Amino acid sequence: MINYVYQLVSPHVFSLKYEEVDFKKEVIIRPKCMAVCHADQRYFLGRRDAKILRQKLPMALIHECCGQVVWDGTGSFQRGQKVVLIPNVPGRDDGVTYENYAEGSRFLSSGCDGFMREYVNLSPDRVVPFEQVPLPVAAITEFVSVAVHAAGRFMRAAHTRRETIGVWGDGSLAYVVCCVLRQLLPESRIFVVGKHERKLLQFSFADRTFLFDSLPEGFHIDHAFECTGGEGSYYAIDDIITAVRPQGAVMLMGVSENRVPVRTRDILEKGLTFTGCSRSGREDFVKAVELMEQPQFQKRLSAIIYEDRPVHTVADLSRVFETDLNTPFKTVFRWEI
């Protein structure tokens, strides 16, 4: 069967590739709705090292996607069933390592084609069904699953005093992490530290919000999540080391292209635990769907989603990415090409 794949061949430039695919032993999905991630934007804008771009392009972007089953040779799903797609391809299972960190694992839209295709073929364990979730919300399931994964690792790493949790960042990642924490730890007080007052207004369900340069004297928390990334990572981690009480757990989630210095002396003196969290696995997707089918959680996610016009042509692909540059949180779009 001939499949159409829409690849980024160089920054800002998309092209159509035809490929022969044997779909007989996998689940065949027609993408319906997709979301843009910062990682996709870095490729689109060419904000990765030139050597990395040469290695990875051409490549179909997008790893946040939901769709409908059109055919399943495995008998696991029904035709027309709504599903979310898991971009992580597990590597070697050693019984210890999470699938998203396993040696030999691959990630679609990072070194191999993502979901910008006419049809997507996946093994059944890379597909999770859903029912009571609107497509624009279901499109960001992968993003929610990343927050679920971090929350799960936090539960295992953090001591039992969880009265106050600080979240550094005021973007989409910080928002979704707060949504997940509010749902899983309803008794904990959540404090959000950001730098954009208008964005912080969206965090109405948090207990308090603070501007990063106006933290009150004596501000302390039990644990923290760093969701800034980029140049903001240094300042966020520095603030966290100061604010977290002894033996606190710190979850690092923001991606930085540059080295970030940290005050190791204070980390040692306080006995802090730093945990790096990236991507997610199947069990995180299943939990994410479970949360997203709850009306209040779903409503909160809807508040940060901007739905752009549907994609009908290759030219529309660039429009979506350019629109996303001016969207404060998540951009989603219908896939009708």
Automatic annotation (TrEMBL):
Belongs to the zinc-containing alcohol dehydrogenase family. It is an enzyme of class 1 (oxidoreductase). This is Ribulose-5-phosphate reductase. The keyword RNA-binding does not apply. Pfam families: ADH_N, ADH_zinc_N. Residues 25-130 form the Alcohol dehydrogenase-like N-terminal domain. GO terms for molecular function: ribitol-5-phosphate 2-dehydrogenase [NAD(P)+] activity; zinc ion binding. SUPFAM superfamilies: GroES-like, NAD(P)-binding Rossmann-fold domains. It comes from Hydrogeniiclostridium mannosilyticum. Catalyzes the NADPH dependent reduction of D-ribulose 5-phosphate to D-ribitol 5-phosphate. Its EC number is 1.1.1.405. It catalyses: D-ribitol 5-phosphate + NADP(+) = D-ribulose 5-phosphate + NADPH + H(+). PANTHER family: D-GULOSIDE 3-DEHYDROGENASE, NAD-DEPENDENT ALCOHOL DEHYDROGENASE. Its cofactor is Zn(2+).
